[in-house]
Design goal:
This protein is α+β, with helices and mostly antiparallel strands. The chain contains 2 helices and 9 strands; from the N terminus they run ββαβββββαββ. It has one domain: Jelly Rolls (Sandwich). The longest helix is centred in the N-terminal third of the chain and has 17 residues. Pfam families: Olfactory_mark.
């Protein structure tokens, strides 16, 4: 949690069980030689499901992202419109929210960069969605050699 008074820092938590279940869905379709449903989003190997648990839902004002990448690479954070359910096994492309947050660290750089306008709009949208959700799920896509263990991320709100 953020040390400053009035700040609420909510970490991204990798949901290993849900990620595994979604990967099993993909394997099952492959083994049965069956096509996915129209518009179904199947997890690629570099995609993982994360969650943010809102310990407070109301009167949140987005302040900033706190994304730390231990090595160069890129992570794309996409929110989902799923409500109340941990079962994203049949996640549909239309359930993926826009805009997305894209965060990267270049070789030799110490700071993580992002497209600030999209990240700001995305953060504000998350604050709005928190009013009706206790948990929000995210699809994180890792590229450039970056892996989940090399990410520490959170969203900071004014509470």
């Amino acid at each position: 949690m953020a040390a400053e008074a009035g700040l609420l820092e909510l970490p991204f938590t990798c949901d290993e069980q849900l990620t595994r279940r979604m990967r099993l869905r993909f394997q099952s379709l492959q083994q049965k030689n069956v096509r996915p449903q129209d518009g179904e989003k199947l997890l690629r190997p570099n995609e993982h499901i994360y969650r943010v648990d809102f310990i407070q839902q109301h009167k949140l004002r987005f302040l900033r992202w706190d994304m730390r990448l231990e090595r160069p690479g890129k992570v794309t954070v996409t929110g989902t419109s799923q409500h109340w359910t941990p079962d994203l096994t049949h996640l549909m492309n239309r359930q993926l929210l826009e805009p997305v947050g894209i965060f990267w660290r270049k070789l030799g750089a110490r700071e993580v960069e992002c497209n600030e306008a999209d990240a700001q709009e995305f953060g504000e949208r998350i604050a709005e969605l928190a009013q009706i959700r206790k948990v929000m799920y995210f699809l994180l896509t890792f590229t450039g050699g970056l892996e989940p263990a090399q990410l520490k991320g959170s969203i900071v709100f004014k509470a």
